[in-house]
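Q: Protein A?
A:
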Amino acid sequence: MKKSFFALSMLVLAPFASAAAIPQLKAFVAESRTLSASFHQTVTAKGKRDEAQGTLEIARPGKFRWNYNKPYDQQIVGDGKKLWIYDRELAQVTTKPLDAALGSSPAALLAGSNAIERDYTLKEAGTQNGLEWLTAAPRKSENTFESIRMGFSGNTLREMELADSFGNVTRIRFDNLKKNPPIAASHFTFTPPKGVDVLSE
């Protein structure tokens, strides 16, 4: 089962090691212009568990590339105006306006504007498994996710947990985090390969 997740992020923040999670998130959004990382994703749905891994790059505001490389090959690219989803196995590309696709989703939170508290209600969620956690509840009911949790350690976002209205839970662990690395603008453009079906929404 393929689970596309837009959005993504991580952070290296201020120098205090055990700060509460909300100040760390705010500092990340205010200070991080580009990000890169590898990730491991687990989706649990109706007793089934699916795992995937890949890499991501973000250039705020609104540009990102999320590449799955195992167990399937899929690219999700936000170029600032459009969202492109390329499934190599299906030889299919889906595109839609970026604003309509993201709304107040986690990708908009992490790759979008600085208006975190406009779109989300943030609460400290304590310490668990060595991480400082916060919850981000979307203010708009049409948001894809009902709740989001972010776990920090050493001023770095280590994990995210996302629950949707269908009972699915997506957990993402970030590794090899880099804050403000140089990323070529071409990484956030996408041209459909020849011979693939292109579907517009």
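Q: Protein B?
A:
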Amino acid sequence: MEIQALRYFYAVAKTENMTRAAAQLHVSQSTISRQLKALEADLGQKLFTRHSFSIELTEQGRLLKEQAADLLLMADKIEHEFRTWDEVTGGDLYLGLAESYQIRWLASWISQFKQQYPKLHYHVTSGDRGQVYERLDRGVLDFGVVCEQPNPDKYAALPLPETDTWGAVMRTDSPLAKQKAIRAEDLAGLPLFASEEAWEHDLPRWAQEKMGSLQLEGSFRLAYNGAIFVREGLGIMLTFDRLVDTSPGSGLTFVPLTPKLEEHLYFTWRKDANFSPIAERFYKFVLEKANEPR
């Protein structure tokens, strides 16, 4: 299986249109068609169902689309690392980040680092801890930020300087919006939003035996999307503070949970990672910043 054929496949899979994919890639439709047929022959599976004016992914095609994104990212990462190996003013960093207000620390470190290495390019993906760990393990990412203490046998980690506070985001006209804190029993039977990961791993530590009385209405990986549903009166979202706008006039209110539930975030990397030169420099830079007095 050739990387170029995989690039053609991924472009067509995203657009589900051969003409648009050909325009994006600046090649002819016949070139793409030929590459896709060769790819299907190599894999021994049909990847598309072709219609008059569009194409549709088969089950095998949908699976390959999911895997192709990381495969192509890895190929690009390898190419960029070797191309910029001797580049003393830059290079490429690959980071996977949890959603948190504390990401501001990482943004600040990158901003300062870029002053020393102006040709730095960084590639950021968002994901839950499972996704970040998986991509670290596969070598797709250099570093990650996760909402838990990583396994010390496998990962090295630095805690970010602050903690995130859990709470409930609701409409300002909600009866619960006037409370100083939210207990699990306050939410019993109400439609709730949270990430699947938080619902399974984090919130049970807070609700404990009352977890069974809580009702997950829908799950969101991005708090911004959940906030839109909250504004429509569809439910209450359990999330970190300062992820969505709850300022006066926003129509939303954040109320912390009680007992208090906090989360530490960790900047992490694989202990056995073989860093590129720019990733090695960034790793040492972050260590210095983390040890500075505040």
